[in-house]
Specification:
Chain lengths: 51, 165, 247
């Protein structure tokens, strides 16, 4: 599959940039949702008007 | 009077999410980093590129001074020594100047590509030479698919590359 | 303790809208990876390096958008008729996501710089102003963490945000005002080949959906954090009163 994108000396830089970008966003999202799960039981329903 | 022990309520009371010391140290780092960037920018980026045709004519683009010059690498002018030292001719608006750098330029460096070279203009018996420390390839903002049909067109463009600014 | 159903504990900040948004952004990202890494062609000069464009440009644009949203929400907080802590939390959430996007933009840009210019970093006008913007908003987030009441935090940070918003046009026009190494905008001038343009378009849609999803959730987490702080404060006050009554 990699051959289709023409593996070259540039390929590692391209892969790393995708991994860092999408990975960074994924880590942020995951930590955010984990934090939400952690504190939600301590917050009353009326403080969560979206539910 | 109610003497029963206070109920331990799980609240945010003891949590003290606010840690001003952390915020204050981040702010300190921000101020230092911001200051360094401004200093670096004022000493480096504003010392902007002199186009090749501005050498010796525009103030700030003088011989002997540390500057950066911009131009296009002339077709057929690139010579690489075994030591890695590279020489080529850079051109802008019909004015050209030989460039010598101690190492092989990286990136997508090739003939007919716009580059910015950091260094200084030296005057020797044969004329002006640019002694470069670093070559940066200045890619323009047009992209096109890599395609065999375009090779001819690319060659044609390369042939007239020295005409481009 | 409030009664929470297992579903809402598992997804305390989720709603039907956010779920749809989340799925749509995930699909968008998958499309972006497929088009960006496999289906789009190599560039004639940059070869595979051009593929970084499809994540670098959307993340940069969305970071600018995030900072503009922070500015608008901060203005809405400062304006008496619309004053609400919700605006403050949207501003904070958007700035966090903006810092995240700007951070990854700097990383992908420096990797792109390495393969295209030959260097990871240079003190070019576009690069320097972008890094400065990044650092400014880290400072903004630090100001939010300085403590005090929610209202003090909101007011302080709103003023900083309005000042910081002025930097956004500086970054944008830096490519025009100084002679930079960084290339000019390609999209507006139609300098992208068809499939490349489409892939960039996919990236922008995916990152926009992702941005909205992230801010929506983050803003709700911040609301819960604030509620938790208030609870702590209420309990402390009640305890004080109880102690006073005992004397």
């Amino acid at each position: 599959m990699l051959a289709s994108m023409g593996v070259s000396e540039q390929t590692p830089y391209v892969i790393i940039s995708y991994v860092v970008t999408l990975g960074g966003i994924a880590v942020f999202a995951w930590r955010m949702l984990a934090r939400a799960r952690k504190i939600a039981p301590q917050v009353s329903e009326e403080d969560r008007p979206w539910t | 009077m109610d003497l029963s022990p206070r109920e331990a309520v799980p609240t945010a009371q003891g949590r003290k999410r606010k840690r001003p010391w952390l915020a204050i140290s981040v702010l300190a780092v921000v101020f230092v980093a911001g200051g360094l960037m401004v200093a670096k920018f004022l000493t480096s980026a504003v010392d902007y590129y002199c186009n090749v045709d501005e050498i010796g004519t525009k103030s700030g683009c003088d011989v002997g001074r540390n500057i950066r010059i911009q131009g296009t690498v002339q077709a057929g002018s690139v010579e690489k020594a075994s030591s890695g030292a590279t020489s080529f001719i850079i051109e802008y608006h019909g004015v050209s100047m030989p460039v010598q750098v101690g190492s092989e330029p990286s990136g997508i460096f090739k003939e007919c590509i716009p580059v910015v070279v950091r260094g200084r203009v030296a005057q020797d018996a044969t004329g002006k030479v640019f002694e470069g420390d670093e070559v940066i390839v200045k890619h323009d903002n047009s992209y096109d698919a890599e395609n065999k049909d375009r090779v001819e067109q690319a060659n044609a463009e390369a042939a007239q590359c020295s005409q481009k600014g | 303790m409030p009664d929470l159903s297992p579903v809402s504990i598992a997804r305390p900040t989720g709603t039907r809208v956010s779920r749809v948004l989340g799925i749509a952004s995930l699909v968008g990202i998958v499309w972006l990876v497929v088009f960006g890494l496999f289906l789009s062609p190599n560039d004639a000069t940059q070869k595979a390096g051009v593929r970084i464009l499809y994540i670098h440009v959307p993340s940069a644009w969305l970071a600018y958008l995030a900072f503009i949203v922070t500015g608008i929400s901060s203005a809405a907080y400062l304006f008496k008729r619309t004053r609400s802590l919700t605006w403050d939390r949207i501003a904070g959430a958007s700035a966090e996501v903006g810092v995240l996007f700007m951070g990854v933009t700097l990383v992908s840009g420096s990797l792109w710089g390495r393969i295209s210019w030959g260097i990871y970093w240079t003190w070019d006008s576009r690069l320097t102003t972008t890094a400065f913007l990044f650092v400014t908003y880290i400072g903004y987030l630090a100001v939010r963490g300085l403590g005090g009441t929610h209202q003090q935090r909101a007011r302080r940070s709103a003023i900083i945000a309005l000042l910081a918003t002025l930097e956004v046009p500086l970054v944008h026009f830096s490519v025009k005002w100084w002679r930079p190494l960084h290339q000019q905008e390609s999209v507006a001038e139609g300098k992208l080949n068809g499939l490349m343009l489409f892939t960039l378009f996919v990236g922008i849609i995916a990152f926009t959906l992702l941005y909205v999803w992230l801010v929506l959730h983050r803003q709700r987490v911040l609301a819960m954090e604030d509620a938790l702080d208030d609870q702590g404060l209420d309990t402390a006050l009640a305890e004080r009163r109880a102690e006073g009554a005992q004397i």
